[in-house]
C-alpha cells in the first residue's frame, strides 16, 4: 500500500502544480556486483533522482565504505556507481560525470535517451503499481526495465529513461546492476540548469571513450614501472579489472 499513497499524493501534487516547478524526488536502491560476470558479490548504494521543469539529476552513494580484498594485486575501477547524471529533456541533452585521476569530478555530454526500447505486453505489480516491461540494448549491454504509466515521468535511474512512465525497476540482464524504487515524494528542488549553462564546452561521448582508454593505459604504464623499475618493456604483474556499464574499451 506504500506506493498507493505515494501515487495519490503525486496525483494531487500534479493537479496543483501542473508544470512540476516544485519538483519530485525519487529514491532508488542500487545493487552493484563487484565480481562482475564472474560470481556474485554485491555492494549496496542509495540512488536519488530529482526532477524539475524538464531537468533531472541522478546520483548514488555507497551505503557503507567498501574495502579491497587483503593481498589482492587487482585494481578494480567501479566508477559508474558514483556517476552524477544531469538530463535536459528540453534540449535533448545529458551530462554525466566521473572522477578523474586527481579526484576531481569531470563531465561529458551525450544525447538524451539514445537507447531504443522494445515495449512488451508483459506486466507485473510492484507493490500497488502496475508496471510494464521494456527491453533495450544500451552501449553494449542488455537492460530490462519496468515502468509505470500512471506516473507520467519519462525518466529513471542513471542514464535510463525515455519510457512512457517512470522506471520503477531496472537491471542489466544478469542483474549485475540492479535498481528498484524505494520512494517518491514532491519536493522543492533548485534548478540543475544553474550548474551547467554551457553544454557545448564539455567533451562528447567519443571524448569520454578516449579519456577512459587513456586512463587505463596510464595506469598500466604506472604499474609496469612500479613492478619493474629497471625494465622499460616488462609486463606488469598487477591486473586491471575495469568494470563499466558501457563497453567503451578497445
Number of helices: 2
Count of distinct strands: 13
Order of helices and strands: HEEEEEEEEEEEEHE
**Largest beta-sheet characterization:** 11 strands, antiparallel
Task: Give your account of this protein's structure.
The longest helix is centred in the C-terminal third of the chain and has 23 residues. It is globular and about 55 Å long. The chain is 15% helix and 39% strand. With 250 residues, the chain is of the alpha+beta class. A hairpin with a 2-residue loop joins strand 8 and strand 9. The protein has one domain: outer membrane lipoprotein receptor (LolB), chain A (Clam).
Secondary structure layout plus pairing:
Blueprint: H1 2-16, E1 24-33, E2 42-52, E3 55-62, E4 75-77, E5 85-88, E6 93-99, E7 105-111, E8 118-126, E9 129-138, E10 141-148, E11 166-172, E12 177-186, H2 205-227, E13 240-242
Parallel strand pairs: 4-13
Antiparallel strand pairs: 1-2, 1-12, 2-3, 3-5, 5-6, 6-7, 8-9, 9-10, 10-11, 11-12
Keywords:
two-stranded parallel sheet, 250 residues, outer membrane lipoprotein receptor (LolB), chain A, single chain, alpha+beta
Amino acid at each position: 500500500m506504500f506506493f498507493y499513497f505515494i501515487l495519490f499524493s503525486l496525483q494531487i501534487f500534479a493537479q496543483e502544480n501542473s508544470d512540476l516547478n516544485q519538483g519530485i524526488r525519487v529514491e532508488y536502491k542500487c545493487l552493484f556486483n563487484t565480481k562482475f560476470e564472474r560470481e556474485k558479490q554485491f555492494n549496496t548504494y542509495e540512488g536519488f533522482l530529482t526532477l524539475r521543469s524538464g531537468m533531472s539529476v541522478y546520483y548514488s552513494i555507497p551505503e557503507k565504505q567498501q574495502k579491497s580484498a587483503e593481498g589482492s594485486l587487482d585494481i578494480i575501477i567501479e566508477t559508474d556507481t558514483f556517476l552524477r547524471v544531469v538530463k535536459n529533456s528540453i534540449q535533448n541533452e545529458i551530462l554525466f560525470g566521473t572522477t578523474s585521476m586527481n579526484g576531481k569530478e569531470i563531465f561529458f555530454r551525450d544525447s538524451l535517451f539514445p537507447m531504443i526500447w522494445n515495449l512488451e505486453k508483459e506486466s507485473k505489480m510492484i507493490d500497488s503499481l502496475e508496471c510494464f516491461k521494456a527491453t533495450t540494448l544500451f552501449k553494449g549491454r542488455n537492460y530490462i526495465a519496468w515502468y509505470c504509466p500512471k506516473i507520467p515521468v519519462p525518466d529513471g535511474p542513471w542514464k535510463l529513461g525515455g519510457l512512457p512512465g517512470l522506471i520503477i525497476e531496472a537491471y542489466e540482464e544478469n542483474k549485475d546492476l540492479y535498481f528498484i524504487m524505494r520512494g517518491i515524494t514532491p519536493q522543492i528542488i533548485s534548478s540543475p540548469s544553474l550548474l551547467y549553462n554551457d553544454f557545448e564546452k564539455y567533451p562528447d561521448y567519443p571524448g569520454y571513450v578516449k579519456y577512459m582508454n587513456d586512463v587505463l593505459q596510464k595506469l598500466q604504464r604506472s604499474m609496469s614501472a612500479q613492478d619493474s623499475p629497471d625494465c622499460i618493456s616488462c609486463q606488469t604483474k598487477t591486473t586491471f579489472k575495469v568494470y563499466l556499464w558501457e563497453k567503451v574499451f578497445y
